[in-house]
Amino acid sequence: MFIALDLDYLVAVRTPPGHSWKNPVERIMSILNLGMQCVGLMRQKMSEEMEKLINGCNSLEDIREKAKINNQLEEELLQSMEPTRDLLSSIFTRQNLKDEPFKMFKPATKTEMETFWESVHLVDDSITMDDTSQKKVADKPKLQEFMEHCCRKRLYFFEIKKCGSGECDICRPIRSDINVFKELKGLPDPIPGPDDHYISFLEAYEKETTEEYCPSLRNRKPRNKSKDVEKKGGNGMDFSPTAQYGKNVRTIVKCVECNKPRVLYARHKISEEEFRLLQSFLESIEYTCGVTFKGLSELSSSKSRKESDIDINDDDEKEI
Predict the structure, then answer these.
(1) What's the half-sphere exposure (Cβ side, CA atoms, 13 Å) at 42?
(2) Locations of Acidic residues compositional bias (predicted)?
(3) Environment class of residue 311 by beta-carbon count within 10 Å: exposed (0-12), middle (13-18) or buried (19+)?
(4) I need a labelling partner for 277 at 20 to 30 A (CA). Which of 207, 293, 294, 319 fits?
(5) How many helices (H) and strands (E) does the chain have?
């Protein structure tokens, strides 16, 4: 968006953990649930050929792969979903939050997404539409150079700002007035005040701040590692699992806030197909400490055994 709209400054802010009630997007969920009570949803049936083609798909990724082979699948599937979308739209647009009615927006078309993606190539032309995770773009040198030059990442916000130099070959020249741009400062980090409250934005603005007083970092309780756990190197992981759970460990997931790895193990052995789906799921989310995966067993609808009971090993005695 920053590149496509040729913005001079862009900041994306998220709600601190435990304060989703302050976010209108989160607050409307309960209202939407009220509108969905006693409502059954089902798409229209497609042609027999398309129904057979989609019958073996277990995820959207599988459907996309089938759509690459048969272009008719995408068209018929969208048409079959249209009545369902119209029904949801008619329900949601009659609801409101504090007398402000909800609005429905149409998703971007394929052409619009391709046009939008072309703007990303202005930064790094080696990026593809499959590079949708932080792990996949880590080896893109031009993108990483842009991130270091223009971006500032914090726990609660992500900021992009042009440098303002007309000779810079990384970001474009600014479009706003040069005097106004010089007065534009970055979003400040929270700073505690004398009354056990954080100072206001106006007081913190233009000050050099760090994440030292970030509530999530300050309130995080230190964990006591077991003395029996010995750190070992050369295993490709940031931890040494205990003997009790080491045999069950299949992969790890890292917290995006504290950057600590958490053990992900299965009570029963999972198949390679389930493991592939699990890896795909982990790449699509940002895990934070405290989130549990217990009950996440529907990795595949076709299983020849009992569902896998997958959980995060978050016990102090077994901590990584």
Answers:
(1) 4
(2) 310-320
(3) middle
(4) 319
(5) 11, 8
